[in-house]
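REQUEST
  id: r-88c1
  op: predict_structure
  target: Glycine--tRNA ligase
  payload:
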Amino acid sequence: MDEAIEKQLSPLRVRVKEQGDKVREMKAAGAPDIDIKKEVLDLKARRKELEELTLKLDPPDTFDRSKMADLVKRRFFYDNSFAIYGGITGQYDLGPLGCDLTRNMLEEWHKHFVLQEHMLSVSCSILTPEPVLKASGHMDKFADYMVKDTLSGECYRLDHLIKLHLEKKVSDKKTSAAEKAELGLVLNRLDGMDVGELGALVKKHDMKSPSTGNPLTEPVEFNLMFPITIGPSGAIRGFLRPETAQGIFVNFKRLLEFNQNRLPFAAAQVGNAYRNEISPRSGLLRVREFTMAEIEHFCDPDDKSHPKFDSVSNLEMRLYSAEAQMAGESVRNITIGEAVRGGLVANETLGYYMARIQQYLLKIGIKEKKLRFRQHMANEMAHYACDCWDAECLTSYGWIECVGCADRSAYDLTCHAKATGIKLSVERPLPEPKDVETVTPVLDNKLIGKTFLKQSKEVQEALAALSIEDAETLDKNLTADGKYTLPGTSFELTRSMIPSLKREIKKVHVEEIVPSVIEPSFGIGRVFYALLEQTFTVREDDDKRTYFALPTIVAPVKVSVLPLSSKPEFEPFTKQLASALTKCNLSVKIDDSTGSIGRRYARTDEVSIPFAVTIDFDTLSSSPHTVTLRERDSTLQVRIPVSEVAPTVQRLAASELQWSDVLARWPRFAQQEATK
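RESPONSE
  id: r-88c1
  status: 200
  body:
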């Protein structure tokens, strides 16, 4: 970084480090959690101030969001849902180009992860019963705070409302410098404030509804899941899934059987998830319906090595550790092998997936200098996580989390096993056999079958999975009350179904373990947006000519065919080329309009077509027949035989051939204009 810039940043780095040291000292001294939380908020505020100034002093490049928005809308990459009815905030429809781009991203994701890592694919239901989300913790913790207009009933997300109000106050010329500095500190601390602190700010600054000026209600907690009723009676309460992961966890037992009861293995799922955001914003970055691509890698909790780690260990990555964030330091370039060996990244499997995530993002077009992996600080990390890193992409909105990669330990499987009474574990051979006391309910299977019919097998499995403590609790309750309901179920058991408990000492050769889970989770919409913004390009010689420099591998359309004239003699060549390209599984766009070839090139550039084939008058007379092949980013062209076009573009699209190879093989060509 420039010396002059670093000189301005240095005082802020010192302030962050001082506060980070203070937080460490308080934790070491066992200070009360409430006091530590207050200092952590201050630390985050200072860190945010440092990052904002860094981006302001050393911006990555110039970017005109309005120009990109214009291109996105004109070419219908995406638009607001139900736009002719006024649209709905936080909901978007993908147009033809957006659909093709997303599909290509997901196809490459499938090849890169599912095929190359031999993962098991699943597609699970979106409609999720309430008990599943109760067990996973979403019912209790998946919420934001909101306030309402007391007269109109309009809802506002509390932290967003406060931010808008304070930012307006900061920009007001009447606000003193001292007050602006104080408000800036508050703004940086908003993310970590609790409902009491947020409510106090509303009262302190006498905030009103921004739409009507009416008073606001007291803050209330709002669960972000969409509630539904399942079935005509409405008796089964549920929600649209807020993430795709739970479908994989509840199918763990079947997946384990499919994998011949062996660890490790990974399951993958792509699908939509739904979060009822109170006040969506920032375009595609915060929406109510979005596509996720999630992987759950199940492994031995005592052995998180990865057999393919050596293949990525020398990959250099930009890691922003929790330690660096607390010390006010910047991103560090380090190989993932060094990071794992030094304990910066918790284990090989987590490190392997971080490296594979980087390889995928770079392959589809994310810029290396605009990608970093930020480690969650202790106060950000879920209580069950061992380590967590976010792949963040730099956009005009700042650093945006696009992919999360976490070691979730055994939390999810443990929760669902406890809620259902079903074992979600794996048998692991012991080094030496050992004696273990067992307590097994003695069952009257005939009576259980007669009572529970089709559900009898489920009851028997739940009873077989009981721990010693649970079995003794069951026996005690049956003796005292004559009946007992299995936890997490509606199965009511009687003493006649379970006459007694059988106790014995068994020599066991295996032990049961609950696997740990490493989870890479992709927000496809966020990656999609970051990709568009990072590849948005303005021609140096014409600032009105804009396009997306998307890599061929994800470009919505791979090649355009442009006959230079509308004369009938050109038609057979147009059909021949389109047919040959299509047979190579390449998407083709034919533009036979009568505009100038320069205008048509501009049109194909706008929709990010990487290659253009032009049929000109020399095509008709040459032997063998030749056409020109143009590359979008450089605008350079070569003269190439018609028969070579399809295989050449196919190899370019598959990254088996580079444009420099084409330039080296075929003669350069200077552009010509159309003749009618």
